[in-house]
Design a protein that fits this description.
The protein is an alpha/beta fold and about 375 residues long. The protein is about 35% helix and about 15% strand. Helix 10 packs across helix 12. The chain is globular. The chain starts with 11 loop residues before the first strand and ends in a 6-residue tail after the last helix. The structure holds ligand T4K. Ligand T4K binds next to helix 3 and helix 4.
Length: about 375
């Protein structure tokens, strides 16, 4: 793993991928070179899936080439084929795009302010006979109100799919958060706590649904002469599996380093009245995926964003603009901002500060110093 060095004076990105020592990856690459199986359910992928299942303590966990396709095909495996899927507008675009590619229409419900996840009351009000599923997102790896959402879904006979893209290693009540819902989809993109360059995994509560999914992931092919479904190609390669196998032994250390940086941010920002540091709920073991703060004063979030960017601190406004404001979705009746006040406020106020395991303490201090300077001037000032 990369060590932590002194201040870089380079642009400070919101995240940097963790890389395993090359020496630990090379023997796995040699296996691929020796056996010349590079994809289609090869031996390293099978080993990676088994190791990952054990590490996370969940079964029925197929690995896929990215979380976006995992979301699309999880919905299809759960029977979504048209109709409407209720979801949050406060997310990375992939969660809503996945509903479109699953053949359904997204219907936006509002979020609630504590977790920034779907508000069960807003979801309940939006359920109609056309509703086929609920797709909720654990934003920033903070668990949304899973008990309430699942109880609501059960009453209406709807499946719940969690976009758990940010949630590698997150636990709720002592169990992997991936164990919740009918399906949970985690991303292994390079920007995530654990990654395989591109990648992801889907956890299913029902092994029969998982079997349907396994066919969909491989073009709908069950065997050479049997192609029972219209599938896609969402298979992960042996190279992705090799990287996953090499990085997994370092995952706990990466999360521990993130936790230390998270604590230090909170200490350094404790006296900054205009900044609220979000935190995961008490039932949760967190993975410290990123460091989201809320700056509620009108116009101050954007002012801070631009000033920090000018100073080389590449903060992000995850998630601005709201998905419901994008041209592709803004004409949907559920996209009316007046129906989404909590999500609209979050999109105006949230800012994500850099956080990754080898962020140097000197760089972290610089980020906080630049944030203090940015917040000291009024919004309109340059
Ligand atoms: N659902 C949710 C809630 C998600 O957040 C995501 C993905 C998905 C679903 C879909 O998962 P995948 O299909 O991707 O598995 C990035 C990621 O590309 C995206 O995967 C992620 N969410 C999202 C939150 O972040 P961008 O457009 O912000 O990426 P980008 O290229 O601006 O990268 C952010 C920073 O990371 C860069 O400023 C520098 C650093 N970086 C990035 C890459 C790719 C590196 O240092 N090295 C790298 O290789 O979307």
């Amino acid at each position: 793993m990369q060590g932590i060095s002194g201040s870089s004076h380079q642009p400070l990105f919101v995240t940097r991928p963790s890389m395993p020592p090359l020496a630990e990856l090379l023997p796995l690459l040699e296996e691929i070179w020796d056996n010349r199986i590079v994809s289609n359910g090869g031996p390293l992928l099978r080993r990676f899936e088994a190791t990952l299942s054990q590490y996370l303590g969940v079964d029925n966990l197929p690995v896929v080439t990215n979380a976006s396709l995992g979301l699309v095909l999880a919905m299809r495996a759960l029977g979504v084929d048209g109709g409407e899927v209720l979801t949050t507008p406060f997310s990375f675009v992939a969660s809503t795009h996945a509903i479109h590619w699953a053949g359904a229409t997204p219907v936006f419900a509002d979020i609630e302010p504590a977790t920034l996840g779907l508000d069960p009351e807003s979801v309940a009000a939006a359920i109609t006979p056309r509703t086929r599923a609920i797709l909720a997102v654990h934003s920033y790896g903070h668990a949304c109100l899973v008990d309430e959402l699942e109880a609501l879904a059960r009453r209406h006979g709807l499946p719940v799919i969690y976009d758990a893209a940010h949630c590698f290693g997150v636990e709720l009540d002592g169990q992997s958060i991936l164990s919740r819902g009918d399906a949970s989809v985690v991303s292994f993109h390079g920007t995530k706590v654990f990654h395989t360059c591109e990648g992801g995994a889907v956890r299913f509560s029902d092994r029969h649904v998982r079997q349907t999914f396994d066919v969909l992931v491989n073009h709908g092919i069950a065997d050479e002469a049997t192609i029972p479904a219209i599938g896609l190609n969402a298979k992960a390669s042996e190279l992705q599996a090799a990287l996953g196998l090499a990085l997994l032994p370092h995952a706990a250390e990466c999360i521990a380093r993130r936790a230390a940086l998270d604590t230090r941010y909170r200490e350094m920002l404790a006296d900054v009245q205009s900044v609220h540091c979000l935190a995961a709920g008490p039932r949760q073991k967190h993975n410290y995926y990123n460091f989201p703060i809320r700056i509620a004063a009108e116009g101050m979030r954007d002012a801070a964003f631009h000033r920090l960017r000018a100073a080389g601190v590449m903060v992000r406004r995850y998630f601005h603009p709201l998905i419901s404001q994008l041209d592709s979705y803004r004409n949907l009746p559920s996209a009316d901002p007046e129906r989404l006040p909590v999500a609209s406020a979050a999109a105006r106020q949230m800012l994500v500060l850099p956080l990754y395991p080898d962020l140097a303490p000197a760089d972290q201090s610089r980020i906080v110093e630049e944030l203090r300077i940015a917040l000291a001037s009024p919004p309109g000032a340059v």
